[in-house]
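batch job 7 of whatever, protein = Putative endonuclease
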Amino acid sequence: MIALKIHVNAAEKMWFVYFLRCADNSLYAGITTSLERRLAEHNNCNKKAAKYTRVRRPVALAYAETLNNRQQASQREYQLKQLSKRHKEQLVADYLQQQAR
């Protein structure tokens, strides 16, 4: 019997764009292929955490979207970062309300 190795192309992975709510109530935007892993990295003392979140712990997931590839995720992250604080907060509020259902 021959074992087949299946290689998943990076473009085939699902990507996420997310907002984290920081301890100072600010929002941090990022992209990842694993929300659980990335949230743990932001909350734990390791070098993979963004400098911004290192001094604003703990952080909690406040918003997430799924995208098909890294390019789409990066473009959406850029769009989200361009939103006003008011629009970001409304997006988060709508997301959390939807998740509560």
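notes: DSSP finds four helices and three strands in the chain.
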